[in-house]
Amino acid sequence: MTVDDLDQTPYRRGKPKGPNASAHLVLRHTDPGTLGPDRLDVLVAEVTSPQYAAVHRRHVLLVRGAYWLVVDEGHDLVPRTYTLRWHLDPSAGPAVLVAGGGAVSAVAGGVAIGMVASPGTVSAAVEPGWVSPEYGVRHAADVVAVRTAPVPRVEIATALVPRPDPGAPPPRLAAVPGGYAVEVDGGPADVLTRDGDTWTLA
To answer: What per-residue confidence (pLDDT) applies to 101?
Structure first.
């Protein structure tokens, strides 16, 4: 996630100079046993940057071993513009994007994406970009990007669902009190709520 169009660490040729971004693991919770219908694995990490005063915290949830919910938080004392980008696989083909009412959906190749932001004022686009599988190698690839209006605090949730069938619909993601509801393939919604950094699956 970039803040006011600035990366966490400035990229330049040669050896890095000056201070770099500082990241640390906040929490890691792994359910014991095998994958099951109620399994919820959680990672939470936070990063600060010398480029800006905003703090970026990311929650990564593996839900039922079937899909991911990623919640990105940004906050500062002053309004900032936050941009979140998902770089797609080069073999995914062109991404199809649908946006409206503060929610964004995208489908490309083997993945479907659903996003919602709070506050809900965002713009969404599919941008030309690239991915680098190894040093010095770049492949053209679509990038799904959402951008907020200037706000002091934002939370952007993204559901990432593997899609072997490219015609399958994207997940439906909605904010609910204390968390998010995720609906996959028209089934009952998973409700994921949080108390600080602790998440519960219902």
So the answer is: 62
Determine contact, residues 192/22, Cβ cutoff 8 Å. no
Residue 42 tokens read as 């959680």
Higher-pLDDT residue of 58 and 124 is 58
Q: Hey, which bits of the chain come out as E strands?
A: 2-3, 22-29, 40-49, 52-63, 67-80, 82-87, 96-100, 103-108, 111-118, 122-134, 137-148, 151-162, 172-176, 179-183, 190-195, 198-201
Which amino acid would we find at residue 151?
V
How far apart, in Å, are the Cα atoms of 131 and each of 112, 114, 161? Answer: 18, 21, 20
> Comparing 48 with 170, which gets the higher pLDDT?
48
- Residue 26 has which token pair? 């906040």
The yes-or-no verdict on residue 15 having pLDDT over 80 is no
pLDDT in tens, 107-147: 776 788 888 888 876 888 889 999 888 988 999 988 988 99
What is the structure's pLDDT at 82?
A: 94
Order of strands, sheet of 190-195, starting from the edge strand that comes earlier in the sequence: 172-176, 179-183, 190-195, 198-201
Residue extents of the structural domains in the chain: 2-201
**What CATH number labels 2-201?**
2.70.98.70
Chain centroid offset of residue 52 CA: 20
Residues facing 93 on adjacent strands: none
Amino acid at residue number 140: A
